[in-house]
From TrEMBL:
It comes from Anaeromicrobium sediminis. GO terms for biological process: L-cysteine catabolic process to pyruvate. This is UPF0597 protein CCE28_09610. GO terms for molecular function: L-cysteine desulfhydrase activity. Belongs to the UPF0597 family. It comes from the Bacteria. Pfam families: SDH_alpha. Residues 153-421 form the Serine dehydratase-like alpha subunit domain. InterPro entries: Ser_deHydtase-like_asu (IPR005130), UPF0597 (IPR021144).
């Protein structure tokens, strides 16, 4: 497979619509699939999750409800989810489904627990009804069923290997960042035109967050201060405002889909909305916009290949906003050294930002990440780049990303466990 085809395959596979935070939605998906395979009244449902999925789903709003958390997501999947809609599994939930789900939870038939596994994405559902049992397993990716069993019949069983070894485009992650950017630059508009769908989708969610003052109201608060003249109406603040507003809306459980990136809706917002801010400030033709969004998604996927699909590091900060920075740098005419510099500046700046689960407070991290992306671009275009061997910054962008991957994989495992323990302790106290 050549580089162009690999990039298109990556974009088609990793850039998909999602309604609600992808971790609880993936839990609902696993439950919905199990429910669809067996008729009758539910006797029990045991849902076991990897620590990362558990952490990310603990405190986040669920679409079409005013509820938060994994329990309601699982129950909704069991009573009204539609697995054929994949990450939009709860799109058709009605008020009666919510009441049924609440009654199911009150009955004590649904149990959520943590699976002892090193896998980042793992969701196991064991459903028992009066006429049989069903077991489903999602692993590696939020939509990837690797095991399905109905009674004693195994319907699906896949080798439990990381998805990055199975996908045909993984060779991209061994390539130079600048070579990827130049390849996208050469593509025909028709090859990447579908990227504009996600731009429009996420822009609409940001607008909703601004007008409705959802979540923490980070985006609308920034907008208010811009209108008062306290903050300047510039690219940096506009990027912060739009990105935060979309997260405000999404984390509060708004009934709108976002275009996700590499398994994360917030990654999709962060990868796209700083580009929307640039578009709002400068006249950019559709072809360049589509290519910029493609660059952002591919770089996000590149970084997440090394740090993990879910991590103790905030992927919006170190991966998605790095993609947005590279894309905006490209729009502004950055050369090879400056593209490398954007990556180095981003990782030098935000490598310490932790992920403590999906929640309304993510709007703060997304606004910071968008701000850092613009800052990294402007500094790099002025040839102000973090020097080599400054902390974990390597000779090249690629070496720096790999160093970040080592930090995430080998240095942050205990951090992830400590974060989860703190979150669980606070849940128990309340």
């Amino acid at each position: 497979m050549n580089l162009k085809d690999g990039i298109i395959k990556l974009l088609q596979g990793e850039v998909v619509p999602a309604m609600g935070c992808t971790e609880p939605i993936a839990v609902a998906l696993g439950c919905a699939k199990a429910k669809e395979l067996l008729d009758g009244e539910i006797q029990s449902a045991e849902v076991l999750l990897s620590p990362n999925v558990y952490k990310n789903g603990l405190c986040v709003g669920i679409p079409n409800t005013k509820e938060v958390g994994l329990e309601i997501a699982a129950a909704l999947g069991l009573v009204g989810g539609k697995s054929e809609k994949v990450l939009n599994v709860l799109a058709d939930i009605q008020s009666h489904h919510i009441e049924e789900a609440k009654e199911l939870l009150k009955s004590g038939k649904v149990k959520i627990g943590i699976k002892d596994t090193d896998e980042k994405v793992y969701i196991e559902v064991k459903l028992k009804k009066h006429n049989g049992t069903v077991e489903t397993v999602i692993s590696n990716k939020h939509t990837n069923f690797t095991f399905i069993k109905k009674n004693e019949e195994i319907i699906l069983e896949e080798s439990n290997k990381s998805e990055v070894k199975k996908e045909p485009y993984t060779f991209i992650y061994d390539m130079k960042i600048y070579d990827i950017v130049k390849e996208i630059e050469k593509m025909d508009f028709e090859d990447v035109k579908f990227m504009l769908d996600g731009l429009k989708m996420n822009e609409a969610v940001a607008e909703k967050g601004l007008e409705s003052e959802l979540g923490m109201k980070v985006g609308s608060s920034l907008e208010g201060n811009i209108k008062k003249g306290i903050l300047s109406d510039d690219l940096l603040n506009t990027a912060m405002m739009f990105t935060a507003a979309a997260s405000d809306a999404r984390m509060s459980g708004i009934n709108m889909s976002v275009m996700s990136s590499n398994g994360s809706g917030n990654n999709g917002l962060t990868a796209i909305l700083p580009i929307v801010a640039y578009m709002r400030k400068y006249n950019v033709e559709d072809e360049k916009l589509a290519k910029a969004v493609a660059i952002s998604h591919v770089i996000n996927s590149y970084v997440k290949h090394y740090i993990g699909r879910l991590s103790a590091l905030c992927g919006c900060a170190v991966a998605a906003s790095t993609g947005a920075g590279v894309a905006i740098g490209w729009l502004m005419g950055a050369n090879h050294a400056q593209i490398d510099g954007i990556v180095k500046n981003m990782i030098a700046n935000l490598s310490g930002m932790i992920c403590d689960g999906a929640k309304v407070g993510c709007a703060l991290k997304l606004s910071t990440s968008a701000s850092a992306a613009i800052q990294a671009v402007l500094l790099s275009l002025n040839d102000a780049i973090v020097p080599t061997r400054n902390g974990i910054v390597g000779e090249t962008a690629e070496e720096t990303i790999k160093n970040l991957g080592v930090l995430s994989e080998k240095g942050m495992k205990i951090t992830d466990a400590v974060i989860l323990n703190i979150m669980n302790h606070m849940q128990e106290c309340h």
